[in-house]
Amino acid sequence: MHLLHKSPTSLEDLPVDLKLVIFCALPDISCLKALVRTSSAFYQTFLDSQLLVVRTVLSNGVHPDVMPEALTVWEASQIMPWSKERVQDYLKQYRDSSTSPTKQLWTLSDGLRFSNLHSHVRSFTADFCSAILSVHPITGVHDPAYRPPSPSELCRIQRIFYRFELCCTLYRRRSFGQKDKDRFSPEEQQNLFFKKFECWENEQLACIHDYLFRRLSVAYDEVAEHDVQWGEDMIDVTYDWKCHSFSKEGYLSQGLEFLHRVVSADTYDERYAVLASVVRSDDRFLDAGLQEQGECDDYNGSEQSSEEDHDSDIPVLSANDDSGPTEAWCWANGHHISYYQPEMMDLREWGFCLWDKSRLMAWGLFRKPWTPTGVFSKRDRLSKEASQKRDWIRKSWEERSRIWQRGGRGWWNWGDISKVAWTYGAKHAIDAEAYKRQSSDFWEVQSSLDSMQQAESERRKKPMPLTPVPRCRVCQPGKTATRCSVCWSSINE
Hints:
Blueprint lengths: L15 H9 L4 H8 L3 H9 L1 H12 L5 H11 L6 H9 L15 H26 L17 H21 L14 H7 L6 H28 L1 H5 L13 H7 L3 H9 L3 H9 L8 H7 L32 H10 L11 H5 L7 H7 L11 H31 L2 E3 L9 E3 L9 H7 L1 H20 L34
Antiparallel strand pairs: 1-2
């Protein structure tokens, strides 16, 4: 006589060990939260093994090569109460000790916060890759069918976004009244943090900084140019060729979650609301630490005796690292040079030191060495345009201040006060049609500004200037030079 076993009629009837198998196979914490809330049976199983389940699901959602940086940010966020001494102690062992999710005592709440940050990292990574890879950096040709980023490129970029978040956690202004002595100076940031990395790794961070600066500027510039209150407060707009602005740095220091809300806002009202949700304060933040540096090591070393010695010019990497970033660094910098240099801004715009060697080779990057030809003339031209734009914005301060004093608030433009809200009542309001007629002269100013912005947008689509220089007989037969600027090997006559 066969024994009949009752089969489970639903997932709730499954044995505990099978429920745990289901839990541990979930791709991310949001799925875990949804499953836990489906029934009391799953909820109780989760409570009994919460640490194991959360730890496993987090590992499912974050690549092993990215997890150490992610956990580092998590540990830094747990420094409570925050103090300069505690951060110094933490940074002394940063990158010197292994970090593993098994060392953490995870709860579902912890996992949700951890997963939330990772979702912002993935979102920014996807946007960064899409924006850069869709346009060939050398030719400027639009390529909608571009080769998607490789797993190693995705991991590399995600790690740098986490490193940016770590800087936000450690170095941002903790409160509006925080004294300078309680913050890390650029020199301290350099000694405690940036010197732990190679030059090209800090250049990678600079690439991400500049990308986030540009993404923030879309929302920030609209509010700074058009908001009546910001005009009364004389909030400046950075019309410069470099990604430097004390006011924008203050917003950047708020971290990826805040920045994701900013870039996701589509309308003026949404953008204003997000920017107004934090205390506005000027800050040097990350650009100050990156600029406070000494010269990098001479990666190219001494004269090599033959072309075969070229490999010794590239810094030694671990087995899992791709040589693309280091070779791109050597291609762009030649001998020793400091990172985060203004003349490298065009290269940082497409993240030159963040891609695998195979992609760089396919782009034809190493066919011609990069030289800053045209960079300084471009700087002079953009500085002249920036001066004109600053004159425009400062004239607008006076006009917006006049409207603010009569109770006007909200979006304003030359000749257009149709969207201004009058808080003191209709009797203090300015007639919109009369204002449009009075402001007709300023429409020419606005049109000129729009034309300059459109022209600059078109210029950015042009290919990067590359100037031919002598090469060795291997790289270019028939040409001679003292040292090949492509492979950096010495050339024997």
